[in-house]
Amino acid sequence: MKKIVLLASVILLMTHLGFAQENASGIKEDFQPSTLNQPGKEYPMVNSQGYARFRVEAPDAKAVSVSLGLGGRGGTVLEKAEDGFWMGTTAGPLDEGFHYYHLTIDGGVFNDPGTQNFYGSTRWESGIEIPAHDQDFYALKNVPHGKVQQVLFYSESTQSVRRAFVYTPPCYGKDQNKKYPVLYLQHGWGEDETAWSVQGHANLIMDNLIADGKIEPFLIVMTYGMTNEIKFGSGLGNFDIKQFQTVLVDELIPYIDKHFSTLANKDNRAMAGLSMGGMETKMITLNRPEVFSHYALLSGGVYAPSDIKDKSQVKLIFLSCGSRENPDGIKKATEELKNAGFNAVGYISENTAHEFLSWRRSLYQVAPLLFK
């Protein structure tokens, strides 16, 4: 009897001390609600190893599964319990960072009511966050914070009112005579102008860099790249950049320079984009070399020395991707640019694929290099 009491006391002590038990498959039972859950919702949950666990109420369903987005490594089939809830745990740990996902219930596609929604894959998707070991650089901290404000501007070329979001640093407006450089930052296919500040935490990355004294403040402008009209996988070579190029260069940039305190010249203007936004960045910077002096492609291809007619007009070329994408291609292209006399920097995000942690890290790396 004493041994049983002692064993129970040890188990209770281990639980209070935070020791995680493992089930037969080696999965630690230290699951906690995802940080992106709706208020008061327990599921989905994430454990310290990066596994995700889902619980969905669908008592009349015949089959329920979870489809994770890029970087999520496949889907998870849920099993029905006696209480009518469907539960399941991913077969393996997920990459650190943010993932889109949705539920498939009897063939229909639905969002998980337990978590928040994020615009991706040309629709509002559920999202889950796997805590990253280096998440401090995009964490919400007690530091001075800038603003992300919506602006509506009229586009003559499209005969429509369009939207952009503008990040202004904490110091913006305190000195009426102070003017700032601008980074035009583009989202990927399936996303929109909300992606970089919501999924990407671009504003928090900037706030933390500024608070740490690692960068001089600048503005970030994020607008819709008009990319979602192209069906994914249908051949991006058919994409015509002309319409968006007109909106960005001839309409949005003049609007920003008129309504914000900017250094309205090429030397203080950069363009960057992730994935398809990187493709847009490459096209526009090559088509309109008089507009931008700093280029960054984040999982969005590469520049070759022959692409650029006058290298003296380019102050920086930054190329990046996840280590599970095409790291050799990034390294090779960066080396070729350096050998040709360009100020080129390559960056590989370790243990990530085509996903937001790759791009959060890339922004963190490139921001201190801009406008030097």
H/I helix tally: 7
Radius of gyration using CA atoms only: 23 Å
Q: What structural class should be given to the helix and strand makeup?
A: alpha+beta
Reading the helices and strands in chain order gives HEEEEEEEEEEEEEEHHEHEHEEHEH
Give the helix level as a range of percent.
Answer: 10-25%
Mean pLDDT: 91
Strand order in space, largest sheet: 12-13-15-14-16-17-18-19
Oligomer: single chain
| E-strand count | 19
Architecture per CATH nomenclature, i.e. the level-2 architecture of the largest domain = 3-Layer(aba) Sandwich
Beta content comes to 25-35%
The end-to-end distance, rounded to whole angstroms, is: 73 Å
Could you please say which CATH topology of the largest domain applies here? Rossmann fold
How would you characterize the largest beta sheet? 8 strands, mixed
User: Uncertain segments of ≥5 residues (pLDDT<50)?
Assistant: 1-19
Number of domains: 2
Principal-axes shape call: globular
In the CATH hierarchy, what is the class of the largest domain?
Alpha Beta
The CATH superfamily of the largest domain bears the name: Alpha/Beta hydrolase fold, catalytic domain
Give structural notes:
- The chain has 372 residues and is an alpha+beta fold.
- The chain is built from 7 helices and 19 strands.
- It has 2 domains: 20-131, Sandwich (Immunoglobulin-like); 136-369, Rossmann fold (3-Layer(aba) Sandwich).
- It has helices at 2-17, 195-198, 202-211, 242-259, 276-287, 327-339, 356-366; strands spanning 32-33, 45-46, 52-57, 64-68, 75-77, 79-80, 85-89, 97-105, 108-110, 117-120, 123-130, 147-155, 160-168, 182-186, 219-223, 269-274, 294-298, 316-322, 344-349.
- A hairpin with a 2-residue loop joins β10 (117-120) and β11 (123-130).
- The longest helix is centred in the last third of the chain and has 18 residues, at 242-259.
- Residues 1-19 have low confidence and may be disordered.
